Amino acid sequence: MKLHALKLFFVGRPIPTAQARHERLTKRSALAVFASDALSSVAYATEEILLVLVLAGVGALVVSIPIGIAISVLIAIVVSSYRQTIRAYPQGGGAYIVTKDNLGTMAGLIAGAALLIDYVLTVAVSVAAGIAALTSAFPALFAYRIWLGVLCIAAITTANLRGLRESGRLFAAPTYLFIVSFAGMLVYGFVRWMFGWETPAPPAPEVVAEGMQSVSVFLLLRAFASGCTALTGVEAVSDGVGAFKPNEARNARIVLVWLGAILITLFMGITFLAHHYGAVPRVEETVVSQLARRVFGGGLLYYEIQAVTMLILILAANTSFSDFPRLAFFLARDGFIPRQFGTRGDRLVFSNGILILGGLAALLIVIFGGDTHALIPLYAVGVFISFTLSQSSMVRHWLRVRGVGWGWRCALNGLGATVTGVVMIVIAATKFTHGAWLVVLLIPLLVAAFMTVHRHYADVAQQLSMEGYDPPPPIQNTVLVLVGDLHKGVEAALRYAQSISPSVKGVYVELDPEKTRRLEEKWGKWGLGIPLVVLNSPYRSLLGPFLDYLDHLLALGENHMVTIIIPEFIPSRWWQHLLHNQTALLVKGALLFRERVVVVDVPFHLKR
Amino acid sequence: MKLHALKLFFVGRPIPTAQARHERLTKRSALAVFASDALSSVAYATEEILLVLVLAGVGALVVSIPIGIAISVLIAIVVSSYRQTIRAYPQGGGAYIVTKDNLGTMAGLIAGAALLIDYVLTVAVSVAAGIAALTSAFPALFAYRIWLGVLCIAAITTANLRGLRESGRLFAAPTYLFIVSFAGMLVYGFVRWMFGWETPAPPAPEVVAEGMQSVSVFLLLRAFASGCTALTGVEAVSDGVGAFKPNEARNARIVLVWLGAILITLFMGITFLAHHYGAVPRVEETVVSQLARRVFGGGLLYYEIQAVTMLILILAANTSFSDFPRLAFFLARDGFIPRQFGTRGDRLVFSNGILILGGLAALLIVIFGGDTHALIPLYAVGVFISFTLSQSSMVRHWLRVRGVGWGWRCALNGLGATVTGVVMIVIAATKFTHGAWLVVLLIPLLVAAFMTVHRHYADVAQQLSMEGYDPPPPIQNTVLVLVGDLHKGVEAALRYAQSISPSVKGVYVELDPEKTRRLEEKWGKWGLGIPLVVLNSPYRSLLGPFLDYLDHLLALGENHMVTIIIPEFIPSRWWQHLLHNQTALLVKGALLFRERVVVVDVPFHLKR
Predict the structure, then answer these.
(1) What whole-number distance in Å separates Cα of residue A416 and Cα of residue A413?
(2) Reduced to 3 states, what is the DSSP secondary structure of residue A480?
(3) Which residues, 6+ apart, have CB-to-CB distance to A601 below 8 Å?
(4) How far is CA B19 from CA A515, B8, B22, B282, in A?
(5) pTM (predicted TM-score)
(6) pLDDT over 70 (residue A347)
(7) Which of B480, B539, B585, B597 to mutate to test the interface with A (most CBs of A within 10 A)?
(8) A338 contact residues in B (CB cutoff 8 A)
(9) Residues of A in contact with B522 (CB under 8 A)
(10) Which residues of A touch B342 (CB under 8 A)?
(11) DSSP character for B487?
(12) The pLDDT value given to residue A137
């Protein structure tokens, strides 16, 4: 009951089914709702590029600018490609559904597995980066980053269990504040740089360390792969077309272009200025924090940038809390994961999906020490697998459906599929040893699990089906009351047994003939005329002789069942259970997997 | 099933009740069986005295000899006192029974609590001292002493679960070997000392350390208290009079005198020679080991002494494994501890008592780091409480019963009670801060627990008693089958329900009207003519509407009962349970404490 009160406090009262409703979003609200995931990645994407390049010395950091341009081109291609998806799936085309439709179940499951992993990582990476924004501003908190991250995930999980909705109202303020603040910082920073007002960069920490790498092709590819985290989240708009106001598809396409343009601008701006302001990756302070500190010279505006960065990262983590349970719902509906993910809880949300997501993300934060950089190599692989599968599906779609302009649309999706496919291979190859192997290994394992679950559900359905059901002969039910003594509890069980059968038997396992004699005496007086079967037990085992007797009864025929009634008195306090032999539990345990046996506890409630 | 095989391997096959037998012991065998506990204490008693005296410098160690003499006198008094107990209780007079008989239940329970603690400590102290004998001979093992101790306890526990008996055969060889070896060492050591062949003692490690204590009365009393551990176990003979060959009491009295004489000889011999051979307490080597090394100059005889010391200490630990379960049996029979301690297991032994004893002793070994000295302060208090209570009971006994020579017997027991009572206070006072407080605190707590358990059993017996039983009106049993769908599993439950009641109802909680329609269609076809009650659930809760309906049925009258049948399909593999909603569990959990409600699972076994 205390548990119930706790749940009420954190999760709130149940909400009736009738209150389920669907909000439709204007373009401006939709941008706020769907952009947070994609835009928040500019908080760490540049840093991830620099982190690889710095291995070849501070001099190599300038290469971040051409790499940034390459990634911007990639964003433009992916956005154009997803615009075609929106056209084809105006109800919303998540990678799992689109791929399953076009490339078959197996490919769909691969996309599903990649997405599930991706959602968990979105939460972990975004929260880790959000806490990094906080600890950059307040270095004293750096030591507590793991627990701050876990606390943050716990808060988001609780909010979602209460039924936080993706409402435009909630998202609009932080998202637009983020866009405006970052745009302001970039413009001001650019102006300072143009007019040479630049704050002098701190002395470059260049030490030509031994084992310093040269700028190899592999290093460039790795830097590029790291920067590709900037693309995570751009698919959100096409997943959520159904939430737009009509004309849904048209509005969604427009918002997607806005999103792409803002993303490229912010990402390129940060990459450009980070280089010119001499920001280099450091453990205790993020690149964005260094940039903001140098552009604004500390002060209130600096803290504002850190605050909105943290806020949008938390919003990004929050989007996974709708995406993951929704995907889990689809997978559960199709019978690939346990059914429990397909039912809504008290507050109309998919509580199981939310809890699992929160738990796994918190686990990742703890395992990876709350370090964004350690998590990044795992992150982008799943995203690009789902990009590639989703775009390839669209190629297949256009080839099959055709329609207006199908040729160039198909070509565009083909370009998208090819480019994202190549990037996926680059990411998997360059980051394999840094953690990507884990995802590469996990996806086939998840797919195998999906298939196993699916086969089990099919097996069960077939075994339970009433198809061709042939009514068996009526049941011959023998009712036994297992007794150790004759007291009020047993009397209650005997009376209950008589209420369900005219031919009840008492069964007693004899451990001590003297006790049997006393029981038989009582039985004559209070036994309600029920016959008493006494079984001998040479090894003092209660169960052995009883199981033998049971086998004998069940051997009478396939239509024979045995109901075993166990009188059980229920103590009024928990610790009192320890003072009584748990015979009922023992008997139930021994009979759990017996066919044609039903065990019935008849409780007798003690008052003290 | 694997668990069962494991048990079979370690514990062996069940033994039939008919094989229970009682061995009668000759005086020689009896000495072997009952002496190990008392004699083994010479392995550490001298060392404990020296350990206190050394606080006042090596010069103070000579005081060990008068202290040893005082303890020898104490042994003589206690032995004489217990000879009177044997006369009065020729069937065996354990402190619990004797005290309960003569001084009442409360005093008996205090003795019982003291004894239970004492038995646990006997195991822990003896095993720790036995391992110390081993690591003195092989110093490389010193680092593993905790785990060696735990392993040793596990082995003794297993042997006792198999039904190791206190057979004269098992005990005779090690006990007599111990007596002969130690006697040999003492004689040879005495001769060497007499003739001045003495091995030069190593340089005395005398450093007049700061904070060195002076030889105060308190220190002398503490040293005396520490040495009193030599007395632990002398009561064993009087507890086991019933095991002697006739004339039991006479034989037991003779054996007790032998035991006392041997104990005093060995203890005084070791104390005397330890001083003259310059043995001082050290962490890594016991005093007995130092003495043996110097007397024999190392070599085979030294290792033989260490081996028999370890062996007798393990035998001493082993005696607690019969004493503790036997006392627990008496306490359980009288309803002061859980009944489970009153039943014999497969192998005719009191398995629960053996397991608890082994577990607690192992815990003590781990907590106290396997260090004999750390455990000693806890040890002697309980022993002397039971001595005092037992001797006081005898005074009361003689006053009541009288008989031949009751006057001087009473005086002797009175002397015993007074002396042991004073020693008890000395021990509790001088060792209070070193750990004795724990025992002083634990005894009243245990007594309170005994009383609580006793009251509960009395309450239950009264509530269950058929005394004045007034048969209530016949039961009106409503049988409900809780359904979520209609498949073969539900069909089996419906057919079962019909076999126990002519008026069954199906109950369905509606979450989705569309599903209700489909169910009703199936129900018309396969529902066996059973009416279907559909309950509305605005909050998607399965339980809420059902509990309301249940309340309504139970409100019909005190003689109304409701049987709730839950169709449950049992998957063939454990992991498949995770793939199904645990509705049955949920419903059972919610109804567990409902009166007049019986929940019945009707299992349907899936084959794959």
Answers:
(1) 5
(2) strand
(3) A566, A568, A584, A588, B598, B599
(4) 20, 19, 10, 49
(5) 0.72
(6) no
(7) B539
(8) 578-580
(9) 466
(10) none
(11) S
(12) 93
